Amino acid sequence: MSDEPLSADAGLPDAGPQPDRRAFLAACAVAVAPFMLDAVAVGEVQEQPQQAAAARYDPRAHYYGMGIDVDKCIGCGRCADACKAENNVPRDPHHFRTWVERYVIQSDGETVVDSPNGGIDGFPEKAADAGVLRTFFVPKLCNHCANPPCVQVCPVGATFETEDGVVLVDEDYCIGCRYCIQACPYGARFLHPVKRVAQKCTFCYHRITQGLLPACVEVCPTGARIFGEVHRRSSPLERFRRFNEIQVLKPHLNTEPKVFYANLDGQVR
Amino acid sequence: MQGYVYPNEWELHWGLLVVVYPYLTGLVAGAFILASLARVFNVREVQPTYRLSLLTALAFLIAAPLPLLAHLGHPERAYEIFMTPNRRSAMAMFGFVYAWYLMVVLLLEIWFDYRKDLVIWARGSSGPLAWLRRALTLGATDLSERSLRFDRQAGKLITIIGIPSAFLLHGYVGFIFGSVKANPWWSSVLMPVVFLFSAIVSGIALMLILFLVTSLLRFKPVDMACLDKLAAFLLYALIVDFSLEMLDFTQRLYEAEESINILAQMLSSRLVISLIVLQVLMGTIVPLLSLGLVAPTVRRQGLLKVPDELRRLIYMGVAILILIGIFSTRWNVVIGGQLFSKSLRGLTVYKIELLGLEGILTAGAILLLPLVILFVLVKVVPPWPDQEVKVEPEQASNAPVAVVQPS
Predict the structure, then answer these.
(1) What is the C-alpha separation between A98 and A83, in angstroms, rounded?
(2) Taking the domains of chain A in order of start, what are their residue ranges?
(3) What is the distance between the alpha carbons of residues B178 and B189, in angstroms, rounded to a whole number?
(4) How far is CA B323 from CA B199, B279, B329, B333, in A?
């Protein structure tokens, strides 16, 4: 053995001359740099899918409507509840974007209709005075009419029809005159008590533009609500309209509603 | 609440303020049409009310937007009706009708009629009132025969344009209601016409009261010929108005469309006082009978000869009943249209407030405001016939000889 002190690489093959510190740091910088550029590039690449997604939604490529199968509605009220939660609708019983009505047609011919808190808490037992002929539940909402009287009367054009067939209200523009609320034959609109602007069902526009379903459709346990596109063969709505006899509410008013009811009783207004 | 109303219908949206608004514009239209009777149709007996009618129309027109602004959810954005109007909206287009009527018809007509008076009144006097009058002449101080003739011709032309404009002003409000197909109480071809004639009735009634009261307040003898003529026109307008309302009622009952049941229910449970008692009985039938008996129409002294003082009293009472009756008419249209559900299955109630922006006190203040404005107008540009300046053409170039300084 030699008298040289033991070095760390004793027993290891000779690594050659050691680089000096400056050269080492330079080499580090060169080694790290591509990763840093890569991090920046990754950030850009990550943004692109979102931008692409936003750019990819083309309202002209859609035309929305809804189908409602009255026979399937069980009056659970989950739709009305989900709507209020999803859209921050005031929880008092006088403001609804969607609600469920119960019809009790009695044997004496009289029809009794009610909608306690829009159906959110379900419906209380109802003892009919006379015998019951039939009962059913009818979900109601804005019909997103193709010929909307509410859009016609808005003095400032705050309510409008989008290219994808949804009637919306621009809350920053609405002056709160309430003419649209008067003009709607279906009672679908209300004035927000705090914001003091007109509000109504938006088909959950913030969801459908991302390929999701409206909240009421999403939570319906029986599939009584069918969301889809009008005139698109592949849409579930089109299938619904093929296999059911369709009615709309108040057709004589020529509002051309885009909410299509199957198995709608003649007593429904 | 009874029966079923849509959940969103529990709250009434157009309340007391929206009742006040067509009432005010109706008075504007009615007062103006009376003025045009004097100017265009040369009914010389009502000439003493000409300028007072114009100023009354102006005072009420200035106050009219107030209930609307107070009622809006966002009045600070109201200007958008003029900046970005939806041309398909009756309400938006009405903003332009209103602006047209105010600027082009009313203000211009008043200016042309008063120009020479303003020039003379401003001359030779000082103080802020004189300065204001001088400013109102807008610098057009020429009193030559040519310019006076131009004033008269322009005034006549504007009044001629003004008559259809006044019809449009209030008929349009009727259209705003009548064109709402969703509401069977409002949706009617007759709505603009009924609105217009009830406006004429209310306007003439108002002018009758104002003429009588201002004459008494100024300790002037009441011009009975004028009052009689006003009463006669009031009767004619009332006959037409009543016929139209009876026609609407009869046809509605006869056709018996689907909405008839709930409307009948509403009438008999919610509108008994305001419709049957105030609008029909006391607001139309009693005035019709009273005026029909005492107002000189076919016979120079009416069917029933009655001394002047009593006739004055009857006219005053009838005019007050009519003003209340027409207010009830507006109430029945606006509130009535919202008391029943569009499901045609139920009725709701209107919870009227005392205080607050939609309260009775606010409405009362808005109804009184035009009288305050009128008081100011009457001080600045007195409408009294005995204070009207008579300018002789040959003296026009100098200071006129006979000048009555208004107090």
Answers:
(1) 7
(2) 61-262
(3) 6
(4) 10, 10, 10, 16
Residue with tokens 């005019």: B319
Residue A251 contacts B where some CB pair is shorter than 8 Å: no
Cα–Cα nearest to B88, from A191, A162, A150, A169: A150
| Interchain CB distance below 8 Å, A157 and B13 | no
CB neighbours (10 Å) of residue A254? 10
What DSSP element (H or E) covers A133?
strand A132-141
* Tokens matching residue B360: 């009775």
- Residue in chain A lying closest to B18 (CA): A177
List of chain B residues whose C-beta atoms are within 8 Å of the C-beta of residue A196 = 73-74
The single-letter DSSP state of residue A204 is -
Adjacency order of strands within the sheet including A132-141: A111-114, A98-106, A132-141
**Band (A13; pLDDT cuts 50, 70, 90):** low
Contact A180, B182 (CB under 8 A): no
| Residue among A97, A105, A156, A173 with most chain B CBs within 10 A, to mutate | A156
Taking CA atoms, B190 is separated from A196, A243, B178, B249, in Å, by 33, 44, 8, 11
pLDDT at B401: 45
Written as one string, the DSSP assignment of A70-138 is GGG-----HHHHHHHHHHT---STT--SEEEEEEEEETTS-EEEE-GGGGTT-------SS-EEEEEEE
**pLDDT for the residue numbered B39:** 86
Q: Which of B229, B263, B239 is closest to B249 using CA atoms?
A: B263
CA A96 → CA A72, A92, A191, A219, distances in Å? 21, 9, 10, 17
SS3 A161: strand
C-alpha dihedral, B251 to B255 to B258 to B264, nearest 10°: 40
The β-bridge partners of A137 are A102
Match 């309340």 to its residue by tokens.
B15
Please report which confidence band the pLDDT of residue B396 belongs to, taking 50, 70 and 90 as the band edges.
very low
| Every domain of chain B and the residues it spans | 17-254+354-395
Angle at A153 between CA A148 and CA A154, to 5 degrees: 100
Which of these, B333, B387, B23, B11, lies nearest to A96 by C-alpha position?
B11
CATH of region A61-262: 3.30.70.20
- In tens, the pLDDT along A144-153 reads 999 999 999 9
Write the pLDDT tens digit of every residue in B248-283.
999 999 999 999 999 999 999 999 999 999 999 999
- For B17-254+354-395, CATH number out of 1.20.1630, 3.30.60, 2.60.120, 3.40.50 equals 1.20.1630
Q: How confident is the model at residue B141 (pLDDT cuts 50, 70, 90)?
A: confident
Q: What is the pTM of this model?
A: 0.87
Compute the radius of gyration of chain A from its Cα atoms.
31
Instruction: Assess contact for B18 and B71: CB atoms under 8 A.
Output: yes
Other CB atoms within 10 Å distance of the CB of residue A16: 6
Q: Which residues of B240-251 are buried (b: 16+ CB within 10 A; e: fewer)?
A: bbbebbeebeee
Cβ contacts of B91 on chain A, cutoff 8 Å:
153, 155, 177, 179
**Amino acid, res. B196:** L
Instruction: Put the strands of the sheet holding A259-262 in their side by side order.
Output: A225-229, A64-69, A259-262, A246-247
Cα distance between the two ends of chain A: 108
Judged by a CB distance cut-off of 8 A, whether residue A155 touches chain B is: yes
ipTM: 0.91
